[in-house]
Design a protein that fits this description.
binds NADP nicotinamide-adenine-dinucleotide phosphate; 24% strand; five-stranded parallel sheet; 26% helix
Length: 363
Amino acid sequence: MDAVNSQRSNHEELVIVGSGPAGWTAALYSARASLRPLVFEGAFSPENQDAGLLPMGQLTTTGDIENYPGFPKGDARTYIQTALDPERVAVLPYDTFDDSRANAAISGAVLVELMRRQAVNFGARVVSEDVVRVDFRTRPFKLWDSQGELTEAHAVIIASGASARWLELDSEERYKGRGVSACAVCDAAAPRFFQQPLAVVGGGDSAVEEALYLTRFASRVYLIHRRDVLRASPILTQRALNSEKIVPVWNRVVREVLGDEQRGVTAVTLCDPKEPGVQERLDVAGVFVAIGRRPNVAFLDGALELDAQGYIKRIGWSAATSVPGVFVAGDVADPVYRQAVIAAGSGAMAALDAQRFLNELER
Ligand code: NAP
């Protein structure tokens, strides 16, 4: 158990659910306001790994972060080595301390670890469990974790983020972990992909980032998009189109993932979405699905109002939700921007709103 867990009580002032930029910024701000928040960062379980729901959020599945203000390319190693606990440094999934990367931009995993450290430095306490059920009908609010333990809280901030959407094909499910992935940074270094042709599905920033990352390992990367114009930002689009290894495959969707028990993925069948009857085969050793995100709200089971797309509804320009005292931050309430810097900013908003709510309760 994390040393900071030992100070957990079952009657809390403020509980924060989530451990991406929104959760840690909310924790930092509320800790500095002496609220001693308790953060459920999620469980490092195999089930969460399979579902793409490991703690520390989506940022850990991104390689270099080039657009988070304050982290230009440069040597941040000394700071990181002194700032993080040695045991956290040991589990970081990237080659952070590789000399050849000394001048690289900060990685997503390191950035979010530093956010965690900063919140803990000011008194945030961390529980490495998922929240699996809530009851927000009366205050104090009730939250049950993956060990079945009940925590009560006077205010709650939900910052549970979003996770990968899948194509929803049976064959995709069959080959998950054996050539089908939603995270190049997590999986691309596997021997099965080395110097092999690979496919990325999608046309947004995530798909292009995945494709660019995969060029380090693959012999060729097919970027399969259902239209003939990428949705990705101009800078990423240009990088993809200039890459010698990336081959755009326009106006195609994946109908099936092909493979066998021994090798895993060996090919995909594609079709023009306007002509589903005409199918073609593309030989690839891996399929990286990057077709957007869905908000992580299952554990709420209707406790908060959602919008038509399933994101938590916020009240006006605030972090308030349909339940007074429950606030929201980050991608779980953001179908539009979905940027780390915006998630962090909304975490600060949620902490300030929660602080005001708790102050008024005391009067
Ligand atoms: P996105 O922008 O929603 O793009 C999803 C892509 O998948 C679209 O091109 C879409 O096609 C395609 N798609 C959706 N459903 C599909 C299906 N069933 N079959 C085939 N293709 C399908 O999602 P994202 O790329 O994950 O990006 C999410 C947000 O995060 C965006 O706001 C993005 O800017 C941001 N982001 C930013 C960065 C960065 O700043 N470096 C990196 C990653 C993500 P259509 O285009 O035809 O709809």
